[in-house]
Amino acid sequence: MTSNVHRSSSVKISPGAVVCVEAEIRGDVTIGARTVVHPRACIIAEAGPIIIGESNLIEEQVLIINKRPDGHVSSPDDKPQTLIIGSDNVFEVGCRCESLKVGDHNVLEAKAVIGRETELTRGCVIGAFCEATSHGPLPENTILYGERHEQRRQYEKPPDQTLQLDFLMKILPNYHRLKKSTKSSDRGEERTASVKKTSSKS
Questions:
Q1: Residues 41, 24: contact at Cβ < 8 Å?
Q2: Which end of the chain has the least Cβ crowding within 10 Å, N or C?
Q3: In the prediction, which pLDDT does 114 show?
């Protein structure tokens, strides 16, 4: 199993993120500030890095995975592809995300699935138990719902999760141990800033 994980294995947690120790995180994963990762969530970077932005809510039993397409035969020429998730997204219990590009303000409801070739743009909702596996981007504010996976547009983005995130950031540390933030991830920026200060003085 370890051999399948992207070789640059490191987990970077920004200050202000709340990531429970019971969450499984493997490979090259970056988690932004104010993102909350519940116990038993899985974030696995096999085929390349995963970058998760700010203020995302990742609930229990969620699987976010960057993996090669089924049937892909690995070769030395394979280049890692980065899975990028924006900000203010909600991943509800038991959903699965393989999409390489998720924008902002999207919701994956319980047990929803989004495939590797599908792009979530902005303000989309994938309903409970629905699967989005089409190639290319879903238009902004798309809703996928029902047993037939019907599709329609909504005129407003999904509701803001700020209050829920604030509540979880206060409550979760009382009941779960948290992974520590990675201060070393900021060293490069600090070095650049110090270089700029030095040059400005001269």
A1: yes
A2: C
A3: 97
CB 66 within 8 A of CB 100: yes
Reduced to 3 states (helix: H, G, I; strand: E, B; else coil), residue 8 is: coil
* Through-space distance between the first and last CA atoms of the chain, rounded to whole angstroms: 52
Query: How many residues are recorded in the chain?
Result: 202
The phi, psi pair for 60, rounded to 5°, reads: -60, 145
pLDDT given at position 71: 66
Contact 57, 90 (CB under 8 A): yes
| Residue in the block written with tokens 């947690």 | 13
Burial zone of 88 (CB within 10 Å; 0-12 exposed, 13-18 middle, 19+ buried): buried
Q: What are the angstrom distances between the C-alpha of 194 and each of 170, 188, 189, 199, 200? A: 34, 10, 9, 9, 10
Render pLDDT for 15-61 as a digit per residue (tens, 0 to 9): 999 999 999 999 999 999 999 999 999 999 999 999 999 999 999 99
